[in-house]
Fold this sequence. Notes:
Order of helices and strands of chain B: EEEEEEEEEEE
Order of helices and strands of chain A: EEEEEEEEEEE
Oligomer: heterodimer
Strand content of chain A: over 45%
Structural class of chain A: mainly beta
Amino acid sequence: DAGITQSPRHKVTETGTPVTLRCHQTENHRYMYWYRQDPGHGLRLIHYSYGVKDTDKGEVSDGYSVSRSKTEDFLLTLESATSSQTSVYFCAISGDLYEQYFGPGTRLTVT
Amino acid sequence: RKEVEQDPGPFNVPEGATVAFNCTYSNSASQSFFWYRQDCRKEPKLLMSVYSSGNEDGRFTAQLNRASQYISLLIRDSKLSDSATYLCVVTLTGNQFYFGTGTSLTVIP
C-alpha cells in the first residue's frame, strides 16, 4: 500500500469553527489531492497540488483552502465549518498525472 | 449532465457468476480511464487502468469503447471477496478527474 496517512481520522466540530485536516505521504510523489465523498455524488475534487507551494482549485473549492509547504504534507483548512461540509474527506497522491492512491479518509461531522 | 454515470445497482450475484458493469462518460475529449474498488467505509483502491485495446488482469477484464463513450468491467468466476463498490474514473486534462457514484456488487454464497 502507498504510504499515505490522514489525521485526524474522525472529527466532530461545531459550525463556525476552523478545522484543518492533514495528509502525509512517504512516497515523494509530486501530486496531491483533496476529495470529499458524499452519498449520491462521486468523489469530488476540492483542491490539488502539483508541487510545493503550487496549488489549484478543484470542482468544489468554495469554503476550503489548502497549503503545501513540504512535499510530504498537504493541509486542507475549513476556515469556518458549515453543516454542508459534513463529509468523508480523502487525500490522494499521484506520481504521474493519472493513477491515484488514496489515504484512509477523515470522517468530519459539523454540528 | 454528469461527466460520468454508472448504474448504482445493487448487483447481487451467486459465487462463480460472471458480472459486468458499464460506465458512460459525456466528454469525448476524455483521456484516461480507470476502475477503482471501494470497500465499505474504506478508501478507493485502484483496480485497473483501462486501455484502448482492452486489458485483462486475472478474472477482471476492462474495455473502452470510445465511439459509444463507455468503459466496462467484467468479473468472471465471482468470489465472495469481490463484494464491494466499483467506481469508474475518467480524466480530461491531467488534473480533471471525474468519479462515478459507484456500482454496488454483492456476491452471494
